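Reviewers of the previous submission asked for a worked example of the structure-prediction workflow described in the proposal, so we include one complete record here. The input consisted solely of the amino acid sequence. No template or homolog information was supplied to the procedure at any stage.
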Amino acid sequence: MIKPEIIAFYLPQFHPFPENDNWWGKGFTEWTNVGKARKLFPGHYQPRIPADLGYYDLRLSLIYEQQVQLAREAGVTAFCFYEYWFGGKRLMERPLVDMIERGVPDFPFCICWANHTWTNNNWNAAAQRVERKVLIEQTYPGIDDIDNHFYALLPAFSDKRYLRIDDRLVFVIYDYKSIPGHYPMLTRWNELARKNNLPEFYFMAYTADPREVKHPRYNVFDNVILSNINGAFGQGHSVKRLLKDVLINRFLHLPAHVVSYRKAIKKMLCPAFENEKVVPVVVPNWDHSPRLGTGGSIFHNSTPELFKRHLTDILLITRQKRVVQPMIFIKSWNEWGEGNYMEPDLRFGKQYIEACRQTINAFDWTMDGTL
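From that input alone, the workflow returned the following structure tokens.
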């Protein structure tokens, strides 16, 4: 069997830019939320303090080089950069643009278009207590915007480091179901790729709902990336659950959605992961109370040892698939505001890095499984 690609989602938010300055105050970055985090109940692991890399600024090229070194140590084979394009407006593009212009380090990468509207309560706990406000809306203007989006990313697609599967360019769309039906982005981008002497795309869709993976809308994609974090907290909005949420969150001022990581990694396993078109997502930890306060959801008591068990379960499923190139995504490399990261912190140091490497290396990849 071919060893799987281990691809980690990468957040480029750790640098100031004008829109964040305008919305949240001068110098705001994801570290602002991370630094404000507090314990919400006994034993809650907050605040989380970065270790080896510190509170870094992605405008410094050395930081990305150090991140790549850690990723290699972990057995991660590529980063998947979140990319933000809003009908011609780009946000948070500087780390990606700078990395492409430098041409180093020699580490594969791909792009995930995070095509969701931003609201004030996406990023800030205080905003949970005020009226919801759209900061920047995602729009789909048409063919000119599709072309402009492609050409904005052409330097990335032309980069020799850009990740290819089946000799095609990997591109992920985060929320495809929000895109209007028959929107011609996929076919148009393949036309533009050929026009620019590039291979066509290996398109992948992302979903957080196992029930979605067989929906006909995803037939146009090569794979569906499935994260089942929601499954750990229970699907749906039953009357019992809503009453519990109101009681715990609004009256006791405690987070309503807390589940032990030990239970979460069992609940996240689902039959949909066995579908050969599905690429599973592993989650080392999760706590987005830095962004949402008591409105956040939390995996309690996550540890590197339990992450090894979680990753092992997903690798066992992946090893059985007969596919051209097996893949696993890690959510995420550096989503510190969601308590969702592989990078070293003061409590565990590099143990998540080591757990990932040890688990991957422990597998026998000579077993037959791929095409």
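The mean pLDDT is 92. We consider this example representative of the routine output the project will generate in years two and three.
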